[in-house]
Design a protein that fits this description.
Number of strands: 12
Order of helices and strands: EHEEHEHEEEEEHHEEEHHH
Number of helices: 8
CATH topology of the largest domain: Spore Coat Polysaccharide Biosynthesis Protein SpsA, Chain A
Strand content: 15-25%
Shape: globular
Length: about 300
């Protein structure tokens, strides 16, 4: 059985930056699989251990990862590291994460483990991502409600048993929903306090009342509205406190983005389309599929 591979979702990347990230992944991955949601870039196939999966169009993060996992499971991998194209995990941090995963698996069913985050040279503490913090076996590892996709180390068999990523959520919340499903089915979700991944969130951020708010392109406002409503009102596995948190902050975030960001008309349009598609139960890319060249 092969041990570990890395899967990277690729959509119109910065080629030089992604190439550097892949070179780092090859230090600890048997193979790196590039999940192309935009045209394949031959320049990124610079090593025989790099495999490309051409999805022919933008099928979303969740569906691309599910396809990739099915491929790597079929060739015998046991573990996979999930990345987006803007994230980088050093070999040292990977080794910490992998050792912690192996220690925890001796005592409990582990769905996934993820590193803490370093965003624009700032460490993002765990309490910014979850309110649940439980002692675990390995030192510097805590049990949490959810972690993000990038840097997520999964046991492939457990990932498939849980049902993989929900393809109704093509961009936002696919990682959180997976984690909540895992908890609902008796698995644990872990985060390392000791291993860090360098991760890009949004175009830029702003600190407001001690919290960093990350700003995105206007189209992401569609998913902000539609899928926040979907997780709060249509996802049974969502923890109760998280349900209150996201539903409370949604209108505040909408007002904040309109007040501080440009392209206000586009953002208002995305808000409306997101709300309407929630009412009409339109999933996946819904009414903005054509904007993102998506299925």
């Amino acid at each position: 059985m092969k041990n570990i591979c890395s899967l990277v979702t690729v959509y119109k990347p910065n080629i030089d930056k992604l190439k550097r990230n892949i070179e780092t992944m090859l230090q600890y991955s048997d193979f790196v699989y590039l999940l192309f949601n935009s045209p394949v870039i031959q320049e990124l196939e610079f090593d025989e251990r790099i495999k490309s999966i051409d999805n022919n169009r933008n099928i979303g993060i969740s569906k691309a990862i599910n396809i990739g996992i099915n491929v790597v499971a079929g060739v015998g991998f046991r573990y996979a590291m999930l990345f987006d194209q803007d994230s980088s995990l050093t070999r040292k941090n990977f080794e910490k994460l992998f050792l912690e995963m192996q220690e925890e698996e001796k005592k409990q069913k582990v769905a996934c483990i993820g590193p803490s985050l370093k965003v624009r040279n700032n460490n993002i503490p765990i309490y910014n991502w979850t309110k649940k913090k439980t002692t675990t076996i390995a030192k510097n590892v805590v049990s949490v409600n959810n972690i993000i996709t990038s840097g997520m180390l999964i046991n492939i068999q457990n990932f498939m048993d849980i049902g993989g990523f929900d393809e109704d959520f093509p961009v936002d919340f696919c990682d959180f929903v997976f984690c909540w499903k895992a908890l609902y089915k008796g698995y644990c979700v872990l985060q390392s306090e000791d291993a860090y991944i360098v991760h890009e969130v949004g175009n830029y951020g702003m600190k407001i009342i001690g919290r960093t708010i990350h700003f995105h392109a206007p189209y992401r406002n569609y998913f902000l509205v539609r899928d926040t409503l979907n997780i709060c009102f249509k996802t049974k596995e969502m923890p109760l406190l998280a349900r209150f948190h996201f539903s409370f902050f949604l209108p505040l975030r909408m007002l904040l983005y309109l007040s501080l960001l440009d392209e206000k008309f586009k953002r208002l349009k995305m808000y409306w389309l997101g709300f309407w598609d929630f009412i009409m139960n339109k999933r996946h890319f819904g009414s903005i599929a054509n904007i993102l060249n998506a299925d």
